[in-house]
Structures are given as structure tokens and as C-alpha cells.
Amino acid sequence: MFSKLVIFILVSLAAAEDLSFTYNGFRSDDLSLDGIAGVTPNGLLRLTNDTKQNQGHAFYPHPVTFKNSSNGTVFSFSTTFVCAIRSEYAVLSAHGMAFVVAPTRGLPGALSSQYLGLFNETNNGNATNHVFAVEIDTVQSREFHDMNDDHVGIDINGLNSEISAPAGYFASNKTMLVNGQAMKVWVDYNGTEKQIKVSLAPISEGKPNIPLISYMRDLSPILNEAMYVGFSSSTGSILTSHYVLGWSFKMNGKAQELSQLPKLPRIGADKIYKLLTIALPVIFVSIVLVLFLTGVNYAIRKKKFAELLEDWELEYGPQRFKYKELYIATKGFREKELLGKGGFGKVYRGILPSSKIEIAVKRISHDSRQGMKEFVAEIVSNGRLRHRNLVPLLGYCRRKGELLLVYEYMPNGSLDKYLYGQPAITLDWSQRFRVIKGVASGLLYLHEEWDQVVVHRDVKASNVLLDGEWNGRLGDFGLARLYDHGGDPQTTHIAGTLGYLAPEHTRSGRATTSTDVFAFGVFLLEVACGRRPIEAQGSDVSILVDWVFSCWNRGNILVATDRKLGKEFIAEEVELVLKLGLLCSHTEPTARPRMRQVVQYLEGDHTLLPELSLGASATGLAFSHKEGFDDFANGGGYTQSLYVPEPTLLSGGR
Length: 654
Ligand SMILES: Nc1ncnc2c1ncn2[C@@H]1O[C@H](COP(=O)(O)OP(=O)(O)OP(=O)(O)O)[C@@H](O)[C@H]1O
Ligand SMILES: *[C@@H]1O[C@H](CO)[C@@H](O)[C@H](O)[C@H]1NC(C)=O
Ligand SMILES: *[C@@H]1O[C@H](CO)[C@@H](O)[C@H](O)[C@H]1NC(C)=O
Ligand SMILES: *[C@@H]1O[C@H](CO)[C@@H](O)[C@H](O)[C@H]1NC(C)=O
Ligand SMILES: *[C@@H]1O[C@H](CO)[C@@H](O)[C@H](O)[C@H]1NC(C)=O
Ligand SMILES: *[C@@H]1O[C@H](CO)[C@@H](O)[C@H](O)[C@H]1NC(C)=O
Ligand SMILES: *[C@@H]1O[C@H](CO)[C@@H](O)[C@H](O)[C@H]1NC(C)=O
Ligand SMILES: *[C@@H]1O[C@H](CO)[C@@H](O)[C@H](O)[C@H]1NC(C)=O
Ligand SMILES: [Mg+2]
Description:
This protein is α+β, with helices and mostly antiparallel strands. Helix content is about 20%, strand content about 20%.
């Protein structure tokens, strides 16, 4: 806190009337203060502070001799001061301040507001007051005939100014609004000429050549011999502070110019301070809240997008998808994106945000980690399988209790939609035959053409997907393994789909290429007949294999052909597919062909297919398809069996 004050008190002992003093800033004991006047730590005289309807006075503490005692004339005097009026509003303030010459230190009985701390309603205008004042009034008080709300006036014994002028200065003919900035005021009285001159200027300007007010008036009758000089100020209903930064006075001479004055508080500093005291806690609380919410959000997101990633998975990096990515791709696994629901979970359509590739994401929930490592290993290795009749597995993602498999999206969906009942679109025979051949070659690839034997375990129409060109593609290979992994055979439930399960698979729980062939056989019949492997017919259950078998048994296997095909099919091909279907779904595993042979039959010479024959066979392999055909079985009373061709014919493959 700097307090710059230079005091010159030159008291001429010989001539006391030549008093002169200069305050470039104040100390509280320099002046006699009353009311709410005070001196700030940095040396500003603050006549009033932000208090309403109050007043303050500050007087030079010693009496000043204004008159020659021998002839009673008021001496010339000169004073200059720098003041500032600060209000809570930019252009409004109340009430005003005045330089005053009064018979007493302080003005007892004076009122605040429009009385400026100078007079009260009883003594206003009374000649016994002996008060001379120069007012800077910022409120237009009509009772005192004020000219405006921003004027300077000379008051003698009362508030009805003898003369007044709008606050301003003539250097540039500008009016100077009392606007909170510091301004200089000069008051000069020439005792010889009996003239009072008042000038105003902004602090940056010098004293104007032409005074704002120039008024002839002999102060001799008004002032006493000994007077006090000082300032008075009052506030009204607007919070206003009146400051005096510096003051100099000289009797019989020119008052010294002021310099190096203390600084005013920054405009609006109080406001800023008030604002800050309110805003800071708010800001702080907001920041804390934002941080907290961000944290919570982060935690939620972190949990939402949490994944399980273990060391052993690191080598599968390329196949690993971020959960967030899949979440975005499927628009948050929206129901709208749901493609279907299967035995393992829901399948969602999505578009990878980075590459814009269309994908199908299968969400598989699993409760145990048991066998997960092997399973993922297998899935990932299966992901390396590439064949035009397999649905490409692009990768996976693992979360707590959940495995997500990412497949290429097959625009035409799964085959089952086109087969059963009255589908919106049916496939014609050539399309079906192409799909069959495709699936056969896909399965052959899994069984024999990849480094290791991959058993599909769940061959069926719903796992055959159709790509954009209506190629049949096998999907979901190896998935069924998730359920028959590890556990002991007693409790392991057999994965696969009812109606596609080979009898020995049900017995042993072991899936083999041969059980795949069985399911493929059922699939062939489905495609040719357009029927489900097991269909409820009233109270009865119709088993497709048995039914086709019975048709064949009755000598017309083509009766089983899908009615939806009409006459638009090649009989030999349909017959081949139906017979091959029966052969593949033979109860006896050894009777089933291998996929290589199946492909040969389908692709090559149709006559290659061994003749299926009815009746007791030499090998005695029974093919019992009794269920659902009681009448047939009982009535016939013979065992249906398939002739199984010599192994040499069928053997091939590996
Ligand atoms: N890659 C894919 N592209 C397009 N649609 C798909 C894809 N994979 C699955 N779907 C759709 O999602 C549905 C559900 O598939 P999902 O494999 O879960 O069930 P499913 O094949 O009927 O039974 P399972 O669980 O035994 O495989 C399918 O019927 C198919 O319409
Ligand atoms: C104004 O001054 C008075 C008296 O000195 C004091 O009590 C009051 O707190 C001050 N108000 C402000 C706003 O500074
Ligand atoms: C006061 O007036 C008398 C008579 O006019 C004069 O002699 C004297 O010098 C004056 N004193 C001062 C201090 O001017
Ligand atoms: C009083 O004295 C002053 C200075 O001494 C002089 O200028 C002035 O004219 C005198 N006044 C009267 C009324 O004599
Ligand atoms: C007005 O002021 C005078 C002194 O200046 C005082 O004697 C008087 O009592 C005051 N009147 C009222 C009504 O306050
Ligand atoms: C002026 O004040 C004096 C003393 O206070 C009083 O005697 C006188 O009546 C007042 N004059 C007027 C006009 O009020
Ligand atoms: C100020 O105004 C006066 C009268 O209106 C005029 O004579 C004078 O030239 C003006 N001065 C400036 C600097 O504009
Ligand atoms: C007062 O006016 C007279 C005449 O104009 C002049 O000589 C004198 O210097 C002035 N006095 C002061 C203190 O300015
Ligand atoms: Mg499936």
C-alpha cells in the first residue's frame, strides 16, 4: 500500500494570511473528518462510500484567515483539487460534493441527499450561515432550481446556486460528464477584482484558459475573518462514492499544481469483487460438478465399453474388435438393427465406423470362462478359413459374460427364410441346386481341405446364408463347440439342432464329420422338399427323412419335391438331391458318404450315385425310419434298409 503524501505547510509567522498547503494524497490525521468520510490505505480521501443517504466532511484542521482584520476585505485565494465520483451505475450517481468555506469544522445539523451535507431545510439560504461553496451536483433538485443532473454551481449560504454551469470545460467545448473518472477543479477568488472563477478539466488536461464559471461577487460580507476550508459530500438513494485524490490551497497566490496522486480503485472493481464473491463459488462448484460428472460419465462409459482382454489373446490382436467400435457400428445394439435370434444369442447388423464394412455381430452370452480360451483360439483360427462358401468371420470381442463374433454381412439372409411355408420369395431349382453345391463345397473345405479337420456341428438351413449373388455360404462353424467343451460326457448337453442330429451323435455326444454329413443330408431334403426337418402335423410329428424315405419306398421319390417349385425343375437333379439326402442321413454312420464324394455326386456324373435299394441288404445295415410312419412300418412288417454300396465306391477323401 503506497501512500504518497507531500505536505507543504508554509506558515508564514509574519503573515499568517499567506497560508498554503498541498496534499498529493492524504493521511487520516491530515484532515478533520466527520460523517462517513475516511482515508483509504492508499491515500484517497473518501468522503462517502457505498452507503445510501449519508454524508461526510473533511476539513483542513486549522482555521484560515480570510480577511485583513484592519480593513475587512477578503484576500485573494486559490485552490485546486482532483476528485472523482463513482457510482454503481455508469451515468447516474447521487448526490454530489462541494468545496466549502465554512465558519466551523464540519457542518453540524446539515442533511444528506440534495442538501449535500451543507445545510438543512431551516438554515438553507440564511445569511447567518456564512458559507461559501462550489458544488458539483449530479442530481437535479428542482426545489433548488438546479439546471440539470450534472452541473457545477456557486452556493452562498444556500443551495440555490448563485450561478451554475453544466459540468464541462471550454478547451474543446465538451461537456464533461461526471463519469467516475478523476477530474480537476480550480476555484480562484481575486480579492481585488472580487471575482470567483471555477474551472473543470479531465485529469489529463491542463487548466482551461476560459473558466467554466466566472462570477463577480465580493465575498467580504459572507466570509468571517477566520474560516475553515474543506469538502462536503452526501449520498442519496444510489450507491455512490466521492473521492478526493489531492488538494492544494493558497492564500494570496496561486495554488500549487498537484502531481503523483494516489490511484483510484479500478472502475467496477467493487462490482467485480462482488461478482467474484458470488461467481467464484458458483464457478468452483460448477467445475467440481463438471469434473464429477465427467468422472462418472467416464466410469459409466468405461464400464459400458469394458472388455475382457487376457494375455493369451494378445496374439489375436488383428481379429480383436473394440467393443466400442461394435457398439457404434450397431448403433448401440438397437432393436432396429436386430437381424435375428438363434440358439446362441442375437445377431445385429452394423457398419464398422472406420472401414464402413457391413457386418453382422453375434452376441453370445456365456456364464463360464471354462473352455473359453480353447474356444476363442478355435474361433480365431476358424477366422482364417477362407472359402467362397463360408461366411467370413472377421473377428471377435470378449466382455464379461459375453462373446461377440463379427461376421461379414450377408445381404440376403439365411436360407430358411426362403424355404418353409409360404415365403415371400422362393428360390427356383437352379438357385437351390447352386446353393446346395456351394454348401457342399464349403463343408468339404472344412472337413478335408483345411490344415485340420473342422467339424461344423450345426449344419442346417438357418446357418446357410445367402450373399449378394445368392451363393450359399455356411456360417456358424464350430460354434456349437462352445457348449460341448470340456465338461464330462454325462452332463454335456449335445449342441446342434433337433432334426439334424445323427443318432450316434445323440448317443455318444461326439460330433464328427460324419454327423455333419448326416445334418447335410437333412439339409438336402429340406431344400428339395421345402419343409422343416421336423414338422408338427396336428398331434403327429412328421420327420422329413422318414417321409422322403417312405416316398422313395413307394417308388416315387419325386412326390417329395417342393410344390412351390411347380414343374420348373430338373427331375434328375431333384432325384439326385433327394436320394443323396437320404444316403447322407443314413442312421448308420459308415453308410454315409464323405463330403468329397457328395461333392463328386453333385458336381459330376449323376449316375455315380450308388443305387439306393430297398429290402434286406447283404450287409444287413438297418435304416429304421419308423417314427411317424407307424402304418407303413407295421403294415409292411419289414425293416427298411438302404443298400449300402461297396466301400470302394464311396471311399475317397482321405
Ligand atoms: N452374417 C450374417 N449376415 C446376415 N444375417 C445374418 C448373419 N448371421 C446371422 N444372420 C441372421 O441372424 C439370424 C440369427 O442367426 P443365428 O445364427 O443366431 O441363429 P440360427 O442360425 O437360427 O441358430 P443357431 O444359433 O443354431 O445358429 C439368422 O437367421 C440370419 O437371418
Ligand atoms: C462506509 O463507511 C462506513 C463508515 O466508515 C463503514 O461503516 C461502512 O462499512 C463503509 N461501507 C462500505 C461499503 O465501505
Ligand atoms: C490590511 O489593510 C491595511 C489598511 O488598508 C493595510 O495597511 C495592510 O497592509 C493590510 N494588510 C495585509 C496583510 O494586506
Ligand atoms: C484593504 O487592503 C487591501 C490590501 O492591503 C487593499 O487592496 C484594499 O483595497 C483595502 N480595502 C479597503 C476597503 O480599503
Ligand atoms: C440546521 O442547522 C443548524 C446549524 O447549522 C442547527 O442549529 C439547526 O438545529 C438545524 N436544523 C435542523 C432542523 O436540523
Ligand atoms: C436565520 O438564522 C438565524 C439564527 O439561526 C435566525 O434567527 C433567523 O430567524 C433566520 N432567518 C431566517 C429568514 O430564517
Ligand atoms: C467553443 O464555443 C464557443 C462559443 O460557443 C466558440 O466561440 C468557440 O470557438 C468554441 N471553441 C472550440 C474549441 O470549439
Ligand atoms: C487580481 O486582479 C488584478 C487585476 O486584474 C490583478 O492585477 C491581480 O494580479 C489579480 N490577483 C490574483 C491573485 O490573481
Ligand atoms: Mg446361425
